[in-house]
């Protein structure tokens, strides 16, 4: 048995429940309740005892109902820990291995748990130099930054990019990584305190969205030209402004909805602003092939071990206090990464 955070209806952080759950293959009994079929992980799965768990904005989308989920459900897509048992047919992973994972599109969510079973094809082994807490703070966010800066658009030395929420979990990693690639980084934040954090991580120009006009400042900084790429995870509140910040033929990367779903877009708006490109990418697509997942993870581990990207764990909560972590994240009180400790 393990304790895990689950929810039976969508809503605010208060819908989360700390419960004892079975681990292993389960089925519905004739009475409709879940029964444990096996104390062993299913074929192709391993059992992981979590040492640290990542809290990501996407967790709040599932909990609130913005993203569809089958109820009752667990929460969480990212964690690090040690393998305790292996199912039949598992090759390449053994009891005692230190592992981490960031997403599992074919598997129910459930990282907010002490112990869980996971298919091995979504796991990566941790290098000795990466601790459990760092891994839980960076797998989902860092792999996201890898594909945003290296695959959606290859950030080049001398290029100027606009990245929203630059003091957040994804944002601080992106800021340092883009600087390592030789880019000039313009970031947005809501407060002066967050601006100081962004500058301390190498951001070249920080726009305080509650005090300054984002488009005017970007035009000022770029001599009226605009930027070739905008990374926008805020969504509803910034979407149109982000399009206005692009130079002709620029790329709009809309990769999140922290403020709500972006408005519908008339395609002619792209033409009017200068033949713009737009994409709405997800990590799942970019890590679907295991070979891609491993290449991306290797690149992430290398840049973190080199010291060029520091993983800032600025909030830590006990696993059973995950609701407080969600409240703080959605209230914009957090900076850098947030983790839960079982
Ligand atoms: N598509 C993908 O593959 C993918 C993968 C990972 C994450 N994401 C997205 O990336 C974004 C960042 O994720 P994260 O976990 O690292 O979170 P985060 O950036 O640490 O937190 C979100 C930040 O968004 C900003 N924000 C602006 N308006 C907001 C509002 N109305 N409510 C709440 N926050 C608001 C806040 O920063 P300021 O106060 O400074 O504005 C807040 O700190 C999320 O939108 C997430 O869904 C997408």
Which key terms come to mind for this protein?
binds NADP nicotinamide-adenine-dinucleotide phosphate; 10 helices; 2 domains; 29% helix; Quinone Oxidoreductase, Chain A, domain 1; Rossmann fold; globular; alpha/beta; 342 residues; seven-stranded mixed sheet
Low-confidence stretches: 27-32
Strand content: 25-35%
Helicity, in percent?
25-40%
Total domains: 2
Architecture (CATH level 2) name of the largest domain = Alpha-Beta Complex
Supply Rg: 20 Å
CATH superfamily of the largest domain: Medium-chain alcohol dehydrogenases, catalytic domain
Give the averaged pLDDT, no decimals.
94
Cofactors and ligands: NADP nicotinamide-adenine-dinucleotide phosphate
CATH class of the largest domain: Alpha Beta
The CATH topology of the largest domain: Quinone Oxidoreductase, Chain A, domain 1
- State the separation between the terminal residues, measured CA to CA: 14 Å
Structural class: alpha/beta
Shape: globular
Biggest pleated-sheet summary: 7 strands, mixed
| Discrete helix count | 10
Brief overview, please?
The protein has helices spanning 57-64, 132-152, 169-180, 192-200, 214-221, 239-244, 268-272, 283-287, 290-305, 322-330; strands spanning 2-7, 16-21, 26-28, 34-36, 45-55, 73-74, 79-86, 98-101, 115-119, 124-125, 160-163, 184-189, 205-208, 227-232, 246-254, 277-279, 313-318, 337-341.
């Amino acid at each position: 048995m393990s304790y895990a955070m689950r929810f039976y209806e969508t809503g605010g952080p208060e819908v989360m429940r700390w419960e004892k759950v079975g681990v292993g293959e389960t089925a519905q009994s004739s009475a409709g309740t879940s029964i444990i079929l096996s104390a062993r992980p299913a074929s192709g799965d391993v059992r992981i005892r979590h040492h640290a768990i990542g809290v990501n904005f996407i967790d709040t989308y599932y909990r609130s109902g913005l993203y569809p989920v089958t109820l009752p459900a667990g929460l969480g897509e990212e964690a690090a820990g040690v393998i305790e048992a292996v199912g039949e047919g598992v090759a390449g992973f053994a009891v005692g291995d230190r592992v981490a994972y960031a997403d599992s599109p074919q598997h129910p969510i459930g990282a907010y748990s002490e112990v869980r079973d996971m298919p091995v094809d979504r796991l990566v082994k941790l290098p000795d130099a990466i601790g459990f807490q760092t891994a839980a703070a960076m797998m989902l966010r860092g792999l996201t930054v890898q594909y945003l800066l290296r695959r959606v658009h290859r950030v080049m030395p001398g290029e100027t990019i606009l990245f929203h929420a630059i003091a957040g979990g994804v944002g601080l990693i992106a800021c340092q990584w883009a600087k390592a690639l030789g880019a000039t980084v313009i970031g947005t934040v809501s407060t002066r305190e967050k601006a100081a954090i962004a500058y301390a991580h190498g951001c070249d120009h920080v726009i305080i969205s509650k005090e300054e006009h984002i488009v005017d400042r970007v035009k000022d900084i770029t001599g009226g030209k605009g930027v070739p790429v905008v990374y926008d995870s805020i969504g509803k509140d910034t979407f149109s402004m982000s399009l206005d910040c692009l130079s002709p033929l620029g790329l709009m990367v809309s990769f999140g909805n922290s403020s709500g779903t972006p408005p519908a877009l008339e395609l002619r708006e792209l033409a009017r602003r200068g033949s713009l490109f737009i994409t709405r990418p997800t990590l799942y697509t970019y890590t679907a092939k295991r070979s891609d997942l491993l290449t991306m993870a290797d690149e992430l581990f290398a840049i973190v071990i080199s010291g060029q990207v520091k993983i800032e764990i600025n909030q830590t909560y006990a696993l059973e206090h995950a609701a407080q972590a969600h409240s703080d994240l959605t209230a914009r009180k957090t900076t850098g990464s947030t983790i839960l400790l079982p």
